């Protein structure tokens, strides 16, 4: 596997082993229990119900969207709804066509194969997957050179569920072989509050509506982060109070864990602080900004920047990263006269027009 730089943040969508075990216990078991993603749920429900009525294997499913929104959970729900077993693997784990052939040849009829980060699969394996998805067979090459022989291997009908955080990296031939494609959107605060109340019941946490709203507002629109923060707030409430989670207790707990009112964590604020205080709001290059905060460029680009851009606190321009007026306001700072904030309206106004 690989070292995911997002593991370094409390509010990251990645999870360690213990967190994964807890999150697995909190996963919904069916579509009715799954909160949010109304459009994807409705469309997927039609696909599964139609397959049941035909007594057939459902079409292959592609789920795209940011991490932590429920792609793995939906794959497990697909298997549960169809009464089929599920096999879970990931694109980075499949580096050779033989790796994929070994997995496919051991599938049983109707089994669900969940392939996470499918865009990171090797090209030879990807090309083998084309035939497996369309014709339910693969050609296994035995030998090398002129004496090599391709042996056709028939596969039982199965359902591939691919998940990706970067759908644009999937080649069209692979993307077109999925019968259903669903894009997962960030959650609204009201949906996250429902997620938090459900998780609180399962974790036996006493939380009021205001406390759930406070956690939801700092969860970046991501259920996995909401559940993570709920567990940290629970710890704080049990150790320093009577265990009940209110708005004030939730806010105090998240302040201890350095998650502010907009969901920014230590790394996010360090990036903004460096951009504003050291570079006057930019523009500044990614590598320079990463050195300033003591992180790798990939960490800044993949962990901090997407959320900061989505919140309207940072912008990527051809000249480099620049802070927006909202960033200065959020940190309570006044932009200097030479700050690019004054020209941002001209920079982005044309695009909006």
From TrEMBL:
<keyword id="KW-0234">DNA repair</keyword>
<feature type="binding site">
    <location>
        <position position="71"/>
    </location>
    <ligand>
        <name>ATP</name>
    </ligand>
</feature>
<feature type="binding site">
    <location>
        <position position="27"/>
    </location>
    <ligand>
        <name>ATP</name>
    </ligand>
</feature>
<feature type="binding site">
    <location>
        <position position="72"/>
    </location>
    <ligand>
        <name>Mg(2+)</name>
    </ligand>
</feature>
<feature type="binding site">
    <location>
        <position position="26"/>
    </location>
    <ligand>
        <name>ATP</name>
    </ligand>
</feature>
<dbReference type="GO" id="GO:0003678">
    <property type="term" value="F:DNA helicase activity"/>
</dbReference>
<feature type="binding site">
    <location>
        <position position="316"/>
    </location>
    <ligand>
        <name>DNA</name>
    </ligand>
</feature>
<dbReference type="InterPro" id="IPR003593">
    <property type="entry name" value="AAA+_ATPase"/>
</dbReference>
<keyword id="KW-0347">Helicase</keyword>
<comment type="similarity">
    <text>Belongs to the RuvB family.</text>
</comment>
<keyword id="KW-0238">DNA-binding</keyword>
<dbReference type="InterPro" id="IPR027417">
    <property type="entry name" value="P-loop_NTPase"/>
</dbReference>
<comment type="subunit">
    <text>Homohexamer. Forms an RuvA(8)-RuvB(12)-Holliday junction (HJ) complex. HJ DNA is sandwiched between 2 RuvA tetramers; dsDNA enters through RuvA and exits via RuvB. An RuvB hexamer assembles on each DNA strand where it exits the tetramer. Each RuvB hexamer is contacted by two RuvA subunits (via domain III) on 2 adjacent RuvB subunits; this complex drives branch migration. In the full resolvosome a probable DNA-RuvA(4)-RuvB(12)-RuvC(2) complex forms which resolves the HJ.</text>
</comment>
<keyword id="KW-0378">Hydrolase</keyword>
<dbReference type="Pfam" id="PF17864">
    <property type="entry name" value="AAA_lid_4"/>
</dbReference>
<feature type="binding site">
    <location>
        <position position="72"/>
    </location>
    <ligand>
        <name>ATP</name>
    </ligand>
</feature>
<dbReference type="InterPro" id="IPR036388">
    <property type="entry name" value="WH-like_DNA-bd_sf"/>
</dbReference>
<dbReference type="InterPro" id="IPR008824">
    <property type="entry name" value="RuvB-like_N"/>
</dbReference>
<dbReference type="Pfam" id="PF05491">
    <property type="entry name" value="WHD_RuvB"/>
</dbReference>
<feature type="binding site">
    <location>
        <begin position="134"/>
        <end position="136"/>
    </location>
    <ligand>
        <name>ATP</name>
    </ligand>
</feature>
<feature type="binding site">
    <location>
        <position position="73"/>
    </location>
    <ligand>
        <name>ATP</name>
    </ligand>
</feature>
<dbReference type="Pfam" id="PF05496">
    <property type="entry name" value="RuvB_N"/>
</dbReference>
<dbReference type="InterPro" id="IPR036390">
    <property type="entry name" value="WH_DNA-bd_sf"/>
</dbReference>
<feature type="domain" description="AAA+ ATPase">
    <location>
        <begin position="57"/>
        <end position="190"/>
    </location>
</feature>
<keyword id="KW-0067">ATP-binding</keyword>
<comment type="function">
    <text>The RuvA-RuvB-RuvC complex processes Holliday junction (HJ) DNA during genetic recombination and DNA repair, while the RuvA-RuvB complex plays an important role in the rescue of blocked DNA replication forks via replication fork reversal (RFR). RuvA specifically binds to HJ cruciform DNA, conferring on it an open structure. The RuvB hexamer acts as an ATP-dependent pump, pulling dsDNA into and through the RuvAB complex. RuvB forms 2 homohexamers on either side of HJ DNA bound by 1 or 2 RuvA tetramers; 4 subunits per hexamer contact DNA at a time.</text>
</comment>
<dbReference type="InterPro" id="IPR004605">
    <property type="entry name" value="DNA_helicase_Holl-junc_RuvB"/>
</dbReference>
<keyword id="KW-0963">Cytoplasm</keyword>
<feature type="region of interest" description="Head domain (RuvB-H)">
    <location>
        <begin position="261"/>
        <end position="353"/>
    </location>
</feature>
<feature type="binding site">
    <location>
        <position position="321"/>
    </location>
    <ligand>
        <name>DNA</name>
    </ligand>
</feature>
<feature type="region of interest" description="Small ATPAse domain (RuvB-S)">
    <location>
        <begin position="188"/>
        <end position="258"/>
    </location>
</feature>
<keyword id="KW-0547">Nucleotide-binding</keyword>
<dbReference type="GO" id="GO:0016787">
    <property type="term" value="F:hydrolase activity"/>
</dbReference>
<feature type="binding site">
    <location>
        <position position="177"/>
    </location>
    <ligand>
        <name>ATP</name>
    </ligand>
</feature>
<feature type="binding site">
    <location>
        <position position="224"/>
    </location>
    <ligand>
        <name>ATP</name>
    </ligand>
</feature>
<feature type="binding site">
    <location>
        <position position="68"/>
    </location>
    <ligand>
        <name>ATP</name>
    </ligand>
</feature>
<keyword id="KW-0227">DNA damage</keyword>
<dbReference type="InterPro" id="IPR008823">
    <property type="entry name" value="RuvB_wg_C"/>
</dbReference>
<dbReference type="InterPro" id="IPR041445">
    <property type="entry name" value="AAA_lid_4"/>
</dbReference>
<protein>
    <recommendedName>
        <fullName>Holliday junction branch migration complex subunit RuvB</fullName>
        <ecNumber>3.6.4.-</ecNumber>
    </recommendedName>
</protein>
<keyword id="KW-0233">DNA recombination</keyword>
<feature type="binding site">
    <location>
        <position position="187"/>
    </location>
    <ligand>
        <name>ATP</name>
    </ligand>
</feature>
């Amino acid at each position: 596997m690989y070292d995911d730089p997002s593991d370094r943040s409390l509010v990251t969508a990645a999870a360690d082993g213990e967190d994964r075990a807890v999150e697995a216990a909190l996963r919904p078991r069916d579509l009715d229990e799954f909160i949010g993603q109304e459009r994807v749920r409705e469309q997927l429900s039609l696909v599964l119900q139609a397959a049941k009525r035909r007594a057939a294997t459902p079409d292959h499913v592609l789920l795209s969207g940011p991490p932590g929104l429920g792609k793995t959970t939906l794959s497990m729900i697909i298997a549960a709804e169809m009464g089929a077993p599920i096999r879970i693997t990931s694109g980075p784990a499949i580096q050779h066509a033989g790796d994929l052939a070994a997995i496919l040849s051991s599938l049983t009829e109707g089994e669900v194969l969940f392939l996470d980060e499918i865009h990171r699969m090797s090209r030879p394996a990807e090309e083998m997957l084309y035939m497996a998805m369309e014709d339910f067979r693969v050609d296994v090459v035995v030998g090398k050179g002129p004496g090599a022989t391709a042996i056709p291997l028939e596969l039982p009908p199965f359902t591939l569920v691919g998940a990706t955080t970067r759908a644009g990296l999937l080649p069209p031939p692979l993307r077109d072989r999925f019968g259903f494609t669903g894009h997962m959107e960030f959650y609204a605060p009201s949906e996250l509050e429902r997620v938090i109340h459900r998780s609180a019941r399962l974790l036996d946490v006493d939380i009021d509506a205001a406390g759930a709203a406070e956690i939801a507002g700092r969860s970046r629109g991501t259920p996995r982060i909401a559940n993570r923060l709920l567990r940290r707030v629970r710890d704080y409430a049990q150790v320093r109070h009577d265990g009940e989670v209110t708005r004030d207790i939730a806010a105090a707990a998240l302040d201890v864990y350095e998650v502010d009112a907009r969901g920014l964590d230590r790394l996010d604020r360090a990036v903004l602080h460096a951009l504003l205080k050291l570079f006057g709001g930019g523009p500044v290059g990614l590598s320079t900004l990463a050195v300033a905060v003591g992180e790798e460029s990939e960490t800044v680009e993949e962990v901090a920047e997407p959320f900061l851009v989505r919140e309207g606190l940072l912008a990527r321009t051809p000249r480099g990263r620049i802070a927006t007026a909202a960033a200065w306001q959020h940190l309570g700072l006044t932009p200097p006269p030479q700050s690019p904030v004054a020209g941002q309206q001209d920079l982005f106004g044309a695009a909006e027009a």
